[in-house]
Specification:
The protein is α+β, with helices and mostly antiparallel strands and 343 residues long. The protein has eight helices and 14 strands. It is elongated. Bound molecules: adenosine-5'-triphosphate and magnesium ion.
Length: 343
């Protein structure tokens, strides 16, 4: 015991045994060297438990809940705190924690994702220039040879796909870096559905899939981002179109959940009569880069980010996403968005 103690004493990694209230039962030399007497202060903070709000230390003591590692900021640096042991001595639960300074890694990670976001963002400029030009040529009164018109339309479709991809990657890198901010503007959900459906009507017509939209007249407003919600619904519709055969049906709808008279939530559904998703794959489709074994009926391999982003957007609005699907019959994606009263 004494030998192992002195071994721990001399480890280069800060290690401490602490109680739930932030008391220090043991600390090694590295701990003292790194944190000195300031440790008393931030441990107290980490152990605080004020009505519902608890410091990070608490998580290591919750029985059955397996918090093993957490990144915390201590005096301006980021430490990865690992629980290496949990013991109860004289009825007092204690945990042994080790601390690793990961500030540099974190900064590097952040720089990398900022860089990606920057590049991706800069790609949008020239691309919208190209789109504008194509749109101008195609809408100008000049009579274009059909062959050229077809080619230009193809170019327009492809540039649209590229723009979607760029937006996805941009949203994704923002989500990852924690810079994903959702605007707080009034959103007319009926308008969101209309825009999303309109933007894919051409694709649906080309693929010979019926795309319809149905909702009552008085869909209430919610607070959030028109842009991001529209993109989320577009993602769902474009998935449905990708996985629904010719003569199939994709329908977009909205229902209102009420509590008494007041609307409580808007439930948006995108339902298709497509190939469906295998039961054992249903759980994972909302994860990033996850694609099921099902092959899309039409080319254009995706990145598997679409549903991940939909989930993040909906959750940022305080809502939730769910899916019901039967293989060979169809899929129904459900977004439930709470109606929050504007403050
Ligand atoms: N309506 C649907 N019908 C059948 N399978 C679906 C449907 N929607 C999603 N999936 C399955 O879930 C997977 C994940 O969808 P997601 O939108 O995240 O990625 P993706 O469409 O493959 O790529 P991306 O959207 O990034 O272009 C899809 O690859 C597909 O296997
Ligand atoms: Mg998709």
């Amino acid at each position: 015991m004494t030998t192992s103690r002195s071994l721990v004493d001399n480890l280069p990694q800060p290690i401490a045994v602490v109680t739930e209230s932030g008391g220090v039962d043991y600390k090694n030399g590295a701990f003292d060297e790194t944190f000195g007497t300031d440790a008393i202060q931030w441990l107290k903070e980490a152990a605080r438990a004020v009505a519902g709000e608890r410091g990070w230390l608490h998580g290591f003591f919750v029985e059955g809940d397996d918090l093993q590692t957490i990144d915390v900021e201590i005096e301006g640096r980021v430490y990865r705190v690992d629980r290496i042991l949990r013991v109860t001595e004289d009825d007092v639960p204690k945990v042994a924690l080790s601390f690793e300074d990961v500030t540099r890694e974190r900064e590097a990670e952040q720089a990398k994702s900022d860089f990606t976001a920057q590049i991706v963002h800069d790609l949008r400029g020239p691309l919208s220039g190209i789109q504008g030009t194509l749109e101008f040529i195609l809408s100008a009164d000049t009579k274009l040879d059909t062959m050229y018109a077809d080619l230009l339309q193809e170019a327009q479709r492809e540039s649209e796909r590229m723009m979607n991809l760029i937006n996805e990657i941009l949203d994704f890198s923002k989500i990852k870096s924690g810079n994903f901010i959702v605007e707080q503007e009034p959103v007319r959900v009926a308008g969101v559905l209309k825009r999303a459906v309109r933007s894919l009507q051409q694709v649906a017509a080309r693929d010979e899939v019926f795309l319809i939209s149905a909702h009552g007249r008085d869909v209430p407003q919610i607070i959030g981002s028109v842009e991001k919600l529209t993109q989320a619904v577009i993602n769902l519709i474009s998935n449905s179109l990708k996985f629904t055969p010719q003569k199939g049906l994709v329908s977009v709808g909205a229902q209102i959940e009420r509590k008494g008279d007041a609307p409580e939530a808007i439930v948006i559904t995108v339902t298709d009569s497509g190939m469906g998703i295998k039961a054992d794959e249903l759980q994972s489709i909302f994860e990033k880069y996850k694609q099921s074994g099902t092959k899309s009926l039409r080319g254009g391999a995706g990145t598997g980010l679409g549903l991940y982003i939909v989930k993040q957007v909906v959750e940022a609005h305080g809502g939730e996403v769910s899916v019901a699907s039967v293989e060979g019959v169809g899929t129904s994606m459900v977004l439930r968005l709470p109606v929050r009263r504007a403050a």
